[in-house]
Write a structure and sequence with these properties.
Keywords: Transferase
Helix content: 40-55%
Structural class: alpha/beta
CATH topology of the largest domain: Spore Coat Polysaccharide Biosynthesis Protein SpsA, Chain A
Radius of gyration: 30 Å
Shape: elongated
Protein name: Glycosyltransferase involved in cell wall biosynthesis
CATH architecture of the largest domain: Alpha-Beta Complex
GO molecular function: hexosyltransferase activity
InterPro entries: DUF5672, Glyco_trans_2-like, Nucleotide-diphossugar_trans
Number of domains: 3
Pfam family, one: Glycos_transf_2
Strand content: 15-25%
């Protein structure tokens, strides 16, 4: 399993068939801590179809890695190289720009440099090798300046080397034949990019650097410690050397580094890159944990799911102590509304959360005759844990959750939702809701973008793929409004959602939801909303926590007024998120237009009075 650096001779004789790829993990660490060991194991597992080699300085012992590979069944090896390749950024750059290093691997078409601070999401290396690039890595960005959108700061070309795919012969050729010429096309791209970002000082540096490279390119690279990835993907193209590199919009689908969270939420959405580099430096720990779990579950549950044809619907009904809470009668209406559905393939998952008042026995006695009811009893600590248990017990392709005091308005409700989902292969369908109040039933303002305000969709009126719920996993993170988290994740993640323009559910106001979210829990609910909005959207990049709180339930409309509220939304640089927020705002203003027009007039009168007092 151990190899030592070879002499600088061509290791690939003419006519010798090359192997496709080797994964290289350079490190100066003789032994890894638990976190890095877990990363190496994960990456090796994801890339198990390729040769893998850890590169160590010759002063280190390979024994820890050899034992690690043997313990975990990893077909890896260790190569010891000259110690002067490690110890500083300049030393690492020397390894990456040394033709002798690439000569070691000329038995391979490609090498994937995968540092220990890289995380692999999916093995799409065959696709990227077939794309024919000589070097591809995460796109580079200018430092932040003012309110310039981060995508405007993304360089048109150039890639990071910490997680990079390199054609071995091409890198060797560039190093052996480099000439400091000029590419007018690349220089034009660079000038337009810098001018568009008003980085005039960088333009002066660009021309100065080109002049210095023309005089002594090797000396210039060494003197100013130009990183090896910048040499291949910026310097070589600018100087007119032949090397195939992708544009940055293509590169970000291969790997990300700086601004990964923004790129994933705003651009990539449901599709992860092959991997990310610098996860410990550039990615918030909470978000990193979320996306690692999300894409792992998505690969297991969602990606391979076939298209819907005649799906089984599981209606999950969570109950607890119905007798003592006086809800047995309303539950009877709820379950009968499910039993009367005309859609044929329905199972009812009736889950009792370990009631202490005989509820479970009463339910079995009343409804045991129904052949499509699966009775379960399992203790839970919250309604959301109960919902998770119910989804876990469900066997259907699609999930509906019906509370004990709500009910389907029509026997065609599930048929309407299923028909719309199967026709479009959607991931979620939702219908209209009627609110049952003391004064009668009134329509609820159903509006999907309004879930960004913790409003807009009632979960009883939804039908969602079980694979989507498992992928997002909303019920295990302790969130107070877990169902709204689910809706926000579906909307912002790019899952396909369809609507049914008919009232499918009647929802009783003043039930369990009011107890969970309102009253003494109102403050915690708002804090929880801020937390998951920052995880699932880019809102935290543009607004402060206090401003995000004003979005919750449209509370800011009354607290700061419609004008300031709208201005706050317009600060959001993410175009899609801003458009959805404005759509939600327009929906609520349309519903309560007269009320808010009156509020604006009162504010203008108040400001006019203040101005009058000052001038007098």
């Amino acid at each position: 399993m151990q190899a030592t650096i070879a002499a600088s001779t061509d290791a690939s004789p003419r006519g010798h068939a090359k192997q496709r790829l080797i994964v290289l993990v350079p490190t100066h660490l003789e032994q890894l801590d638990d976190e890095l060991a877990a990363t190496l194991r994960h990456n090796a597992t994801e890339l198990r179809g390729h040769a893998l080699e850890v590169i160590l300085p010759e002063t280190c012992s390979p024994s820890w890695y050899e034992a690690f590979f043997a313990e975990h069944g990893i077909a890896g090896s260790v190569r010891l190289v000259a110690a002067h390749y490690f110890g500083s950024p300049a030393a690492v750059n020397k390894m990456g720009t040394d033709p002798a290093f690439y000569r070691l691997y000329r038995d391979y078409e490609y090498m994937l440099i995968c540092h220990l601070d890289a995380w692999i999401f999916q093995d799409r290396l065959a696709f990227w090798m077939d794309a024919g690039y000589d070097f591809i890595g995460a796109p580079l960005f200018l430092p932040p300046c003012g309110r310039t959108h981060f995508l405007q700061r993304m360089a048109p070309f150039g890639g990071n080397g910490g997680l990079s795919l390199r054609r071995v012969d091409s890198c060797f050729r560039v190093l052996e034949t480099f000439k400091p010429g000029v590419s007018l096309r690349r220089i034009g791209q660079a000038l337009w990019f810098l001018a568009r970002n008003r980085r005039w000082g960088f333009i002066r540096i660009l021309f100065w650097l080109l002049r210095e490279l023309a005089r002594d390119w090797r000396g210039t690279c060494q003197k100013y410690n130009i990183y090896e990835d910048v040499f291949f993907t910026v310097i070589a193209p600018l100087c007119g050397n032949r090397i195939a590199i992708p544009d940055s919009k293509t590169a970000l689908t291969f790997a990300c580094e700086v601004n990964y969270a923004l790129l994933q939420k705003e651009v990539l959405r449901l599709a992860p890159p092959l991997g990310i580099h610098g996860y410990d430096k550039y990615v918030d720990a909470d978000y990193l944990g979320y996306v690692r779990g999300f894409f792992s579950r998505k690969a297991q549950c969602y990606d391979s799911e076939p298209a819907l044809t005649k799906p089984l619907v599981s209606v999950v009904m969570i109950v607890k102590n119905l007798i003592t809470s006086g809800r047995a009668e309303t539950f009877d209406q709820a379950i009968n509304s499910v039993l009367s559905q005309t859609y044929e393939r329905v199972e009812i998952v009736l889950l009792d959360g370990a009631s202490t008042d005989g509820t479970f026995a009463m339910l079995q006695e009343r409804y045991g005759h129904a052949g499509n009811i699966a009775f379960h009893c399992k203790a839970d600590r919250s309604v959301w844990e109960g919902m998770k248990n119910g989804v876990d017990f469900a066997t259907g392709d699609l999930i509906s959750v019906m509370n004990s005091d709500d009910y389907f308005r029509t026997p065609y409700a599930l048929a309407l939702l299923v028909q719309k989902m199967t026709a479009t292969n959607a991931d979620m369908a939702f219908g209209e809701t009627g609110l049952v109040t003391d004064k009668g039933t009134v329509p609820f303002s159903t509006h999907l973008p309004s879930v960004l305000y913790c409003f807009g969709v009632v979960h009883q009126a939804t039908l969602i793929k079980r694979s989507v719920i498992h992928t997002i996993d909303p019920f295990t993170r302790g969130h107070i409004t877990a169902e709204n988290l689910l809706f926000v994740a579906i909307l912002m993640g790019g899952f396909q959602v369809v609507s049914v323009p008919e009232t499918v559910v009647h929802y009783r106001v003043g039930g369990l939801s009011t107890e969970l979210y309102g009253g003494k829990n109102a403050e915690k609910t708002a804090q929880d909303y801020v937390r998951y909005m920052k995880t699932l959207t880019t809102i935290g990049h543009y607004l402060q926590d206090e401003e995000i709180r004003l979005l919750h339930g449209f509370s800011g409309l009354r607290q700061v007024g419609p004008v300031r509220f709208t201005r706050m939304i317009l600060k959001v640089g993410d175009r899609r998120l801003r458009s959805l927020l404005l759509a939600g705002l327009w929906s609520i203003l349309s519903l309560h237009g007269k009320q808010y027009v009156k509020l604006i007039v009162l504010m203008l009168i108040k400001k006019t009075k203040k101005l009058f007092v000052k001038t007098s």
